[in-house]
Design brief:
This protein is an all-alpha fold. The chain is built from 14 helices and no strands.
Length: 300
């Protein structure tokens, strides 16, 4: 049984399982069929140049969601195999417009923030796509089975998942817009996996694993923001080394040292003011028992 046949059977089973609301099932099935028709027609084509027997299922899923994308747009963001010197990693416009590359293109934290915040995180979606594509190719190039699904395999299911809420709302399906939360959960899982993959790259170099992946959970705010900033920085540093480039200083990391320290635990962050901001570089570390001093009194 081929993977395509299995996918079709899965969609049919989904319709049968949701037969209590035939309108929602039919609409969802029709939407998926129309959007993925070109992917089924061109299913045998994969982005890897390896023989078919060496093709990973992660690559096939990435290709499945790549095929429905219009050809001109797809070609403009295809993997670029240029070496260092072909692109200027310190030019802001180049960083914003650089296609996914192999080796990966270093995108420093200062540039990611400058591009993401004014665009309401829309550019960050492109950043997520680009690094997922680059990591997929990096892992294959290193002879590993990729742990991610590539840029299309990550943002494709997320985008289709967002459509579940509006479809359920229009068809008056129980749950309504809450169906779109499935795509958010999926994205959080991919982000957790991204941190682990960056850790593996550093471990392969004989370096310390820089990220605490469990901080990605929303429950651990603001550490989920901290680990996200650190991931951008350390992945950019890794790609600089892969391209043989000099590690440039990042003004954001210089201002907030906790971003660039090689290893960071929540205890170190909480008790080391000098890591919070460069303005506190001369402040001594806090004592672990400072919150429980004898002079402490509860507030009425």
């Amino acid at each position: 049984r081929t993977w395509m046949e299995t996918s079709v059977r899965t969609l049919v089973n989904l319709m049968l399982a949701m037969k209590r609301d035939l309108r929602f099932s039919s609409t969802l099935f029709l939407l998926l069929c129309l959007s993925c028709s070109s992917a089924f027609q061109n299913y045998e084509t994969v982005i890897s140049s390896a023989p078919k027997e060496n093709t990973f299922w992660q690559v096939e899923i990435n290709e499945f969601f790549r095929k429905p994308v219009p050809t001109p747009f797809r070609e403009s963001i295809s993997i670029n195999y240029e070496k260092d010197g072909d692109l200027d990693p310190e030019d802001f416009i180049t960083i914003m417009t650089a296609a996914p590359s192999s080796p990966g293109f270093p995108r420093p934290l200062w540039a990611v923030l400058m591009a993401s915040i004014p665009t309401g995180l829309l550019w960050y979606a492109y950043y997520k796509f680009a690094v997922e594509e680059e990591l997929l190719h990096t892992e294959i190039k290193q002879g590993k089975e990729p742990r991610g699904l590539g840029g299309y395999g990550t943002l494709g299911p997320f985008t289709y998942g967002l459509l579940l809420g509006p479809i359920a709302e229009v068809t008056h399906t129980p749950g309504g817009m809450q169906w779109s939360l499935l795509s958010v959960v999926y994205l959080f899982c991919s982000q957790f996996l991204l941190y682990e993959r960056v850790n593996d790259l550093y471990q392969d170099e004989g370096r310390m694993r820089p990220l605490q992946a469990w901080w990605s959970l929303p429950l651990f705010f603001p550490f989920n923001i901290i680990v996200g900033l650190r991931q951008v920085h350390f992945l950019s540093q890794y790609f600089c080394r892969q391209r043989g480039l000099k590690l440039a200083k990042d003004p954001v990391c210089d201002l907030f040292p906790f971003i660039k320290v090689e290893s960071l635990t929540w205890q170190q962050f909480m008790l080391s003011p000098k890591l919070w901001c460069s303005c506190f570089r001369d402040v001594d570390n806090l004592q672990p028992n400072f919150l429980f001093s004898k002079d402490w009194q509860p507030v009425d």
